[in-house]
Amino acid sequence: MQSIIKRFFCQIILVLGVMIFMSTQAKPIIRYDIAYEVHYMSCAVEVNQQTIFNTALQNLIFPNRFTFRHGVTQYINQGKNLFSVRVDDAAYFLRKSHAKDAYCRVSVIELSAPDVASEPEHREVFSLTFKIKEVEDDSGNKKPIIITKGSRLNGREMAEGNIYFEKSRVQDIYGDQSIIVTLPTYSFVTNIDQQASLSWVQNATPVKDTPDIREKALAKYKELQIAIENSQWEELKDLLEPALTEMAELKFMTRDAYFDLLKKQVFNSIEEKIKYGGWEADVFNPKDYTFKIYTHGKLFNYYHLRNNEASPTSWTNGDTRTWFSPTLIYINGEVKVGAF
Question: Which of 89, 143, 160, 231 is most deeply packed, by most CB within 10 A?
């Protein structure tokens, strides 16, 4: 009888152990990267109204076989997502021999793994391709148009109508009306089954542009600035939450390992400039910055009017500026870092 009871309890313990193991297993990690391929065409990309990338034509210099890739999970919503891409037809007028080869390709790749230690699998969610095509009107006049042939969704070529024209502006290249370049913006909306438990998606309170929220945002930028200047690394870790922990997971890294990487790539350089290079903290001037709210009020930030990557957490040395630019969220009455 005792042996039966003993086996019975052993079975219960075994079942409970399996249940506990299953409930404590790390959830699958889903990450989204955005990749660009740009050749003789400018390419400005927004994800849910957040500027991600811009190879704007400057001084008539064209990007040549430029490629880049980085994570955008922190800006992906669970469900409907808006991707906007602004391109140009400048090569048709300024680099005619290269116009037929000009393109901008924007792709989103899903990386998935059962845990941090596993090698992630890659899957292309979509790829938007923009090219220049010469057409002729009824009068025999030739002109360029942008086409999206070759774009893919889930591995299959999509109809051009899936990528819709949003707006356009023109640029007078030489200021004498001799060459007018068109810069059209196209948008693409798709549903993404975002499985990352991001705080801005799950817990953030939407905000409106009020003096109170602006003041709280500036206070957060100032806290970050002071922590970096004084090498208060443990305090900085806390100030970067919840983004630090969430983005570390998306990079398949531990929180401490990811912070050490940030420190090596970003904070050490700023710290050295402040201590030994004559750099000084910027004095915030409201006239120099724009306060922007996006993703239906859940994400917001300040950015400099002359450099839309620079936040008020910045330092200058003469005409040169360096910065750290987080994206902010509002949770339980407090401004926190939601992404960077």
Answer: 89
- Residue 165 phi, psi (nearest 5): -70, 130
As a whole number of angstroms, the distance between CA 146 and CA 132 comes to 5
Q: What is the pLDDT of residue 4?
A: 47
pLDDT grade, residue 20 (50/70/90)?
A: very low
Question: According to the model, what pLDDT value does residue 340 have?
Answer: 87
Kindly give, in sequence order, each residue whose CB lies less than 8 Å from that of residue 19, ignoring residues fewer than 6 positions away.
none
Which amino acid makes up residue 220?
K
Q: What is the rounded distance in angstroms from the CA atom of residue 38 to the CA atom of residue 335?
A: 36
Q: Three-class SS of residue 66?
A: strand
Contact 300, 286 (CB under 8 A): no
pLDDT tens track for 286-305? 999 999 998 889 999 998 98
Residue showing tokens 């992906």? 76
The answer to whether the beta carbons of residues 303 and 290 sit under 8 Å apart is yes
d(CA 82, CA 70): 18
The set of residues, in sequence order, having a beta carbon less than 8 Å from that of 333 and lying 6+ positions away, is none
Q: What is the spatial distance between Cα 262 and Cα 52, in angstroms, rounded to a whole number? A: 19
Residue 7 pLDDT > 60, yes or no?
no
Type of residue found at 48? N
Q: Would you state the pLDDT for residue 318?
A: 87
Query: What is the residue-averaged pLDDT of the chain?
Result: 87
The closest of 187, 186, 182 to 172, measured between CA atoms, is: 182
pTM equals: 0.69
Give the residue from 93, 165, 86 showing the smallest Cα distance to 134: 93
| Residues in contact with 95: Cβ distance below 8 Å, sequence separation at least 6, in sequence order | 40, 62, 102
* Backbone conformation region of residue 242, classed left if phi is above 0, alpha if psi is from -120 to 50, else beta: alpha
Reported residue count of the chain is: 340
Rounded Cα gap, residues 2 and 9, in angstroms? 11
Higher pLDDT, 197 or 211: 211
